[in-house]
């Protein structure tokens, strides 16, 4: 009964530790490995909250978790406020490791989770859908596209992204954005200093001013939420 850690409290009714502050385990001894595991401990609700995850391969890191519906958990991998001055012209290493807005080292503001962490969460089955949302902060100005059956490859594939199908679920005011990644075709991630796109003449990430899963540069602005 007195073996609960990290603020956990023993329950005589369930004869288990009732964990708090994002900790999980029989004795509340560790951080969760995913947003899905947090849901099993009743942490994750329909309201977005920031948690520390600890998948085992790296130090604990922050991200946002929320319930979308009964069978879908939201794990934020990127957040950028339209018009904010965050610099996304980053190196390959920064995109692999992740970065935060310099003015506020918190996922409550702008951040990129990191390709290695995204790959881990995807391989664990906890990130199989991607929903990219562009919200301009104005009434009825938003664009949302949903990618299903997403697979994020490892470093040997340059963290390539493939998916089964995509559909635009919101496009208020006919905003000039589109679906630009091809289904069932792995697309490597590119950065200004690591060009992996299929355009032989142009570094799409350099032209767009940010890293992304570019196939070519035809729609670099419309298809890159970071640029």
UniProtKB/TrEMBL annotation:
Transmembrane segments: none annotated. Pfam families: Fibrinogen_C. Residues 26-227 form the Fibrinogen C-terminal domain. InterPro entries: Fibrinogen-like_C (IPR036056), Fibrinogen_a/b/g_C_1 (IPR014716), Fibrinogen_a/b/g_C_dom (IPR002181), Fibrinogen_C-term_domain (IPR050373). It comes from the Eukaryota. GO terms for cellular component: extracellular space. This is Fibrinogen C-terminal domain-containing protein.
């Amino acid at each position: 009964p007195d073996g609960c850690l990290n603020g956990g409290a023993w329950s005589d009714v369930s004869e288990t530790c009732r964990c708090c502050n994002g900790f999980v385990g029989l004795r509340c001894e560790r951080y969760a490995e995913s947003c899905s595991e947090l849901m099993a401990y009743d942490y994750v609700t329909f309201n977005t909250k920031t948690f520390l995850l600890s998948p085992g391969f790296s130090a604990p890191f922050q991200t946002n978790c929320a319930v979308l519906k009964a069978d879908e958990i939201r794990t934020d991998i990127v957040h950028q406020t339209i018009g904010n001055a965050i610099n996304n012209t980053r190196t390959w290493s920064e995109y692999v490791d992740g970065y935060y807005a310099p003015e506020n080292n918190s996922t409550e503001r702008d951040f990129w989770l990191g390709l290695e962490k995204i790959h881990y969460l995807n391989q664990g089955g906890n990130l199989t859908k991607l929903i990219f949302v562009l919200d301009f902060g104005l009434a009825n100005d938003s664009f949302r596209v949903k990618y299903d059956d997403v697979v994020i490859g490892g470093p040997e594939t340059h963290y390539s992204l493939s998916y089964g199908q995509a559909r635009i679920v919101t496009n208020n005011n006919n905003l000039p954005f589109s679906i630009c990644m091809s289904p069932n075709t792995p697309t490597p991630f590119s950065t200004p200093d690591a060009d992996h796109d299929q355009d032989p003449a142009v570094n799409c990430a350099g032209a767009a001013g940010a890293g992304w899963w570019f196939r070519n540069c035809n729609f670099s602005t419309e298809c890159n939420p970071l640029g």
